[in-house]
Amino acid sequence: MKTKTEKEILLVALGGNALIRKGQVGTIEEQFQNLKMSIRQIARLSEEYKIIITHGNGPQVGNLLLQQESCNAVPKLPLEILVAQTQGQIGYMIESTLDSELRKMGVISQKSLVNLITYVVVDENDPAFQNPSKPVGPFYTEAKAATLPYPTRKTEKGYRRVVASPQPVTIIEKHEIVKLIEMDFIVICCGGGGIPVIKKGRTFTGVNAVIDKDLASAKLAEEVGVDILLIASDVDGAILRYGEPDQELLRIVTLDEITRYLAEGHFSPGSMGPKIEAAIQFIQGNGKRALITSIETIEESIAGKAGTEIVK
Amino acid sequence: MKTKTEKEILLVALGGNALIRKGQVGTIEEQFQNLKMSIRQIARLSEEYKIIITHGNGPQVGNLLLQQESCNAVPKLPLEILVAQTQGQIGYMIESTLDSELRKMGVISQKSLVNLITYVVVDENDPAFQNPSKPVGPFYTEAKAATLPYPTRKTEKGYRRVVASPQPVTIIEKHEIVKLIEMDFIVICCGGGGIPVIKKGRTFTGVNAVIDKDLASAKLAEEVGVDILLIASDVDGAILRYGEPDQELLRIVTLDEITRYLAEGHFSPGSMGPKIEAAIQFIQGNGKRALITSIETIEESIAGKAGTEIVK
Questions:
Q1: Domains of chain A by start residue, with CATH
Q2: Which of A55, A228, B94, B156 has the least C-beta neighbours within 10 A?
């Protein structure tokens, strides 16, 4: 039980559109410009809440895959190393943007702010390894796909490599993150869902997989004792009958209701589905508030004026 | 003044050969295997000292440059973003290797260990920007070099892109690093000399440059109050008349002597030179011990049995 004077912990999970908007190629200028929208809100929220920021990395890791496939002159790196690279890249972009926004608010001297490289344990017996399903990287023709040394799957725009997306078991840096949050550090971590590793005896080994960043965020939230989990993306919230004339944005929804809607197939497995699952896991644990909203309405959602809130 | 019971702070700056040895192409397996040599020693030293680890990134950033030049399908990233990517990559490799070594020693539960993305302020009026001199990335023919949109310089193996290598002015995350060290965290930071930024008003902007990792380490050591700066690379220490039949490894050398040797041109500007400059700056400040040694003899050097020590 927290004392009245202690700040609540808010975890904001930023979707890919915080960095690259639909229709953009994703130049570095575009990415920095886009980031301001979400980061400015988080900077203001840091006056009232202890803050953890996690983020996606889909387009960035896809670009690294494409680049290394185009170049035979240097050794290719496994997927988990590319995830680590994107944690460096995006973490720096978020940290420096947040730093600038806090300076503009005149509060930087009171804030400590770190970006942690984070790795996340997965189970080598996770069934996801038998059924790689998460598309990553470039699109291929069917003929090219057949020549590739890894599994591919047909998607709307062509064939893509698929990798396993196992469940996060535990966040390696959880104790460090707890200590940093206690000291009121703003912590950026778990980028791209974390670098996936399996435990072999006393050592950890990276594996060829990607962890869903919303599920990793929910696991982190549970392990660190987060109060509010906010998942920000390019949609306004959880929507019933999405895309149909009578679609309906859920505003406040109970755990039972949302669990039923999920089972009824209202939420697409590759996008809203994991967000709903993450929110459900969080509220089933000790989470107080789970919010799903758009990048533009992070503050409004916390104020109860936008997005979807899942309640017990 | 530290109390007797308080541990001293040891900063180990790891050279590129901690990851990739001469003659290797630098596969990820090679890099992990090579890392054990230095990291195992640092793990043992962490029982006696508070530890900061910095590292180089030359071959890794070179590979990223080469890959992005080979691929026109995705937007190219500026150099400082590539440095951020290598901080993620190498930071993860060092952290997970150290984690494994500490677990083998049975001490992991007492250790907190983080890898911080670090950016470092440089002066936009630094003369280095007028005279880019640090070679980065792939080798080109003279004809190809003439077509490139950035300055190149002829080297032994061909033409290479050159970038500015300005002096580090301050490490942005210094306050955070001080707090983490006070809490006995092992901190990995300042990878590749840090992500170079200049201050524009209230914001920071990345610049096209690379900071020498030994000079950045000396600046960090000064700002954080490090006791011992150890620079580990592929040579045994500071050597007079290097490569000649009567070459001589310096074992203990005063500040006056080493300053004179440096002025006499004993140390090559691109490799041993910056290490000596970093050691001099550190001892001229409040540093207690500055050590230059090989990756293999980190512990021996601290014990006074290997390498070069610069004393007041």
A1: 9-226 (3.40.1160.10)
A2: B156
